[in-house]
Amino acid sequence: MAVARKRDPVRVRPETAATPREKSYVQNERHTRQVTTMSLENRTCLVTGASKGIGCGIAEDLGANGAEVIVNYRSSEAAAHDTAENIEAAGGDAIVAQADVSEMDEVRGMYEKATDAFGRIDVLVNNAGITVDKKFDNMTREDWDRVIDVNLGGVFNCTKTCFEDIRQAHEGRLINISSVVGQQGNYGQANYATTKSGLFGFTRTLALELANDGSTANCVAPGFVRTEMLESVPERVKEGILERIPLDRFAEVEDVVSMVSFIAQEQSSYMTGQILGINGGMEW
Ligand SMILES: NC(=O)c1ccc[n+]([C@@H]2O[C@H](COP(=O)([O-])OP(=O)(O)OC[C@H]3O[C@@H](n4cnc5c(N)ncnc54)[C@H](OP(=O)(O)O)[C@@H]3O)[C@@H](O)[C@H]2O)c1
Q1: 183 Cβ closer than 6 Å to some ligand 1 atom
Q2: How many angstroms is it from 38 CA to the middle of ligand 1?
């Protein structure tokens, strides 16, 4: 593993410096706002659930764009190390951090490890998520709670822990991975769909609360993506889903990751509180 560069974790805005609002006003006046780089160099990105699937793809793409990446996982340790090694093989910096996002103590431990290595978090990608699918008839309170605890509780824990960093960062980013299921609902997924809709209200509220500091919050809502999560869906159900996708294919991880890297960069600085559907044209 590459040795991470340690940086000063505390960045204080000088008393005399313009606020982000003032700065952008001046820049708008002169029509000179220019973003000179596509790079995420010197940006530290924490991606939850980055051992596999969409999170792994996001972490690798952020790394390929120059970011320092914290690869979080819960149980797939070897896969998480593979993600980090791929980032380093492409010339990036990455560390692996185990934490169950539904456990606040573990999230705090992950944050300490991340900030020891990189100083701060500029971008948080709340990607970790699970399904426990059952018709509502058969869904128990435990099935409900498990999904809420990870998909919403985990988002609370990670955002709460990183909030001050994101707020103080130059153009900090909160990026929440939702789903088209949060927009449409889905048979057998009352618990999951509730968590994914919940992220819409959360994102829009955090966008308001971060705006004064020039940081943003956005939500990416993928359609059905070919990962282990989709593999667990029965074949006949998948055929039914495919019929509802105008582009007539499931998404690949690559279809989602470049949107996240775009949001993480300065080019997206005037976009906040948005829900970005990447779903092959599914209606909602
Ligand atoms: N696949 C789809 O069709 C689809 C569509 C729309 C949205 N999404 C959303 O995209 C996100 C990623 O989905 P995916 O398809 O990539 O899923 P996946 O292949 O099942 O991977 C899930 C990832 O989340 C991690 N994770 C699960 N519970 C965790 C916890 N408590 N703490 C920390 N990490 C945890 C897993 O880590 P370990 O293996 O290490 O436990 C794994 O890295 C989810 O939020 C999902 O809801 C997926």
Answers
A1: no
A2: 27
Return the domain boundaries, the chain: 40-278
SS3 content of the chain, % helix, strand, coil (to 5): 50, 15, 40
pTM: 0.90
Q: In the chain, how long is the greatest CA-to-CA distance?
A: 63
The verdict on domain 40-278 having CATH code 3.40.50.720 is yes
CA distance 99 to 267: 31
Sign of the CA dihedral 262, 260, 115, 86?
negative
pLDDT tens profile 78-105: 999 999 999 999 989 999 999 999 999 9
Tens digits of per-residue pLDDT, 215-262? 999 999 999 999 999 998 899 999 999 999 999 999 999 999 999 999
Scan for tokens 């149980």, then name that residue.
75
Residue in the structure block whose two tokens are 């869906």: 233
Whether the per-residue pLDDT at 6 is higher than 60: the answer is no
Would you say 192 and 186 are in contact if contact means Cβ atoms under 8 Å apart?
yes
DSSP letters of 84-136? HHHHHHTT-EEEEEE--TT-HHHHHHHHHHHHHHHS--SEEEE-------B-G
Closest-CA residue, ligand 1 atom 7, reads 179
What is the number of the ligand 1 atom nearest to the C-alpha of 77? 40
How far is the C-alpha of 1 from the C-alpha of 217, rounded, in Å?
31
Of 25, 187, 192, 270, the active-site residue reads 192
